[in-house]
C-alpha cells in the first residue's frame, strides 16, 4: 500500500522558535492555573524550547490485536478515548453512560484482555475523545475534559479534570485551564508529558507540558505549541490522538456498515515543526461489524516494547444496540 494514500498539501517547515513567535501575538496559551482558576488571555509563556528528537512509530506496519469484541460497563455506547497507567499496568477506557443525555461519561478499568475490572462515573464531562493517566504511587489519576458546554453527545469540555480513579467512587476533581473550548488531553507514559488539544481562535492547537508541571498547576512553559495541520486534502472525522517523544499521532475516520469501506487513517506529526510526516490507512480490525475508529494511546510493556494503540468500536450486528471495544497496536519504532 502506498505510504501516503491521501496526498497532503506541502507544509512549510518552521523552526521551533519561529513557529511560536509567528503565532504568539494571537495564540491563546495557558497562564499559571490552579484548580478552578480562570483562563487567561493572550500568550505570556516563554518561547518553547521544543522536544528532543525521539524514535517514532512506523505507522505503515501492520497492527496486532490486544483484544476484540469486549463489552464495557455501558453496554449501549461505543468506546471513546483510552490510556494506560504504565507503572501500575492498568488500562482505562472512557465512554458515554447509558440512559443519559450524552455528556455524562464512564471511566472503565479493564484488563489487558479486555475484561471489566471497575468503573467510575463523571457527570457533565463532555465527549471523551481522548484521556490521560498519571500514576502516583499505587494510584492512577485520570486526566480528562470536564464542565461540558452542553448536555448532548455534541457537548465538549471547557476545562481539564484530574482525579484519582476509585472503582464505584465519586471523583474528587481538580480543574485546570477552565474557560477553554473543546479541550482534551493525552499523556506520554514513556517521557512523562501531557498534550493538551483545544480550540484557540477558531482553530485546534496542541500544547505539550511536563506531566509533573501540569499536575502542579503550572501551564506557563509549553515545550511546544502549534496548530493542528491539515490531515487530508478533504475533511476528516477526528477520532483521537496521543504522543510519544517528539511525535504526535492522530486517528481519523468514520464507521461503515460495509467492512470493505475503510477510510480510517493514522497520521504522524513532528511536534517541533507542527508538520505532517506520515499518513497511512489502517486496516486494523477490518473485519469488524460497523468498525469505527475510537482513541489512541501509548504503552511500554514490562519487557520494554513500546506500542502505539488504536481503538475501534464495533457491533455484533447492524441492528444490535450493544457496542463492543476493540484495541490493536503497532510496535515498530524507527530511530
From TrEMBL:
Signal sequence annotation: 1-40
Domain P68 RBP/TagC-like beta-propeller: start-end pairs: 78-328
InterPro entries associated with the record: P68_RBP_TagC-like_beta-prop, TAT_signal
The UniProt record lists the keyword DNA damage: no
Keywords: Signal
Entry annotated with the keyword Signal: yes
Protein name as annotated: Teichoic acid biosynthesis protein C
Organism: Amycolatopsis vancoresmycina DSM 44592
Amino acid at each position: 500500500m502506498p505510504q501516503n494514500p491521501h496526498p497532503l498539501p506541502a507544509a512549510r517547515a518552521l523552526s521551533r522558535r519561529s513557529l511560536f513567535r509567528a503565532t504568539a501575538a494571537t495564540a491563546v496559551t495557558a497562564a499559571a492555573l490552579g484548580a478552578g482558576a480562570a483562563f487567561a488571555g493572550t500568550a505570556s509563556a516563554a518561547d518553547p524550547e521544543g522536544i528532543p528528537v525521539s524514535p517514532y512509530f512506523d505507522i505503515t506496519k501492520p497492527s496486532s490485536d490486544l483484544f476484540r469484541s469486549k463489552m464495557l460497563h455501558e453496554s449501549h455506547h461505543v468506546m471513546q478515548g483510552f490510556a494506560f497507567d504504565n507503572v501500575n499496568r492498568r488500562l482505562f477506557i472512557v465512554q458515554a453512560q447509558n440512559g443519559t443525555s450524552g455528556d455524562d461519561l464512564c471511566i472503565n478499568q479493564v484488563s489487558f484482555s479486555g475484561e471489566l475490572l471497575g468503573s467510575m462515573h463523571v457527570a457533565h464531562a463532555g465527549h471523551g475523545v481522548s484521556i490521560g493517566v498519571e500514576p502516583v504511587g499505587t494510584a492512577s489519576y485520570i486526566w480528562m475534559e470536564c464542565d461540558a458546554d452542553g448536555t448532548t453527545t455534541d457537548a465538549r469540555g471547557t476545562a481539564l479534570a484530574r482525579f484519582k480513579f476509585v472503582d464505584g467512587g465519586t471523583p474528587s476533581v481538580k480543574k485546570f485551564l477552565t474557560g477553554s473550548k473543546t479541550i482534551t488531553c493525552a499523556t506520554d507514559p514513556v517521557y512523562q508529558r501531557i498534550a493538551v488539544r483545544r480550540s484557540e481562535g477558531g482553530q485546534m492547537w496542541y500544547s505539550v507540558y511536563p506531566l509533573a508541571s501540569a499536575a502542579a498547576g503550572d501551564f506557563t512553559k509549553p515545550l511546544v505549541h502549534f496548530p493542528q495541520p491539515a490531515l487530508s486534502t478533504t475533511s476528516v472525522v477526528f477520532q483521537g490522538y496521543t504522543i510519544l517523544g517528539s511525535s504526535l499521532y492522530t486517528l481519523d475516520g468514520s464507521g461503515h456498515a460495509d467492512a470493505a469501506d475503510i477510510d480510517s487513517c493514522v497520521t504522524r506529526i513532528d511536534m517541533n515543526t507542527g508538520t505532517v510526516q506520515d499518513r497511512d490507512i489502517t486496516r486494523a480490525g477490518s473485519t469488524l461489524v460497523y468498525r469505527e475508529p475510537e482513541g489512541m494511546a501509548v504503552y511500554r510493556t514490562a519487557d520494554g516494547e513500546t506500542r502505539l494503540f488504536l481503538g475501534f468500536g464495533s457491533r455484533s450486528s447492524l441492528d444490535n444496540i450493544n457496542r463492543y471495544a476493540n484495541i490493536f497496536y503497532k510496535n515498530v519504532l524507527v530511530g
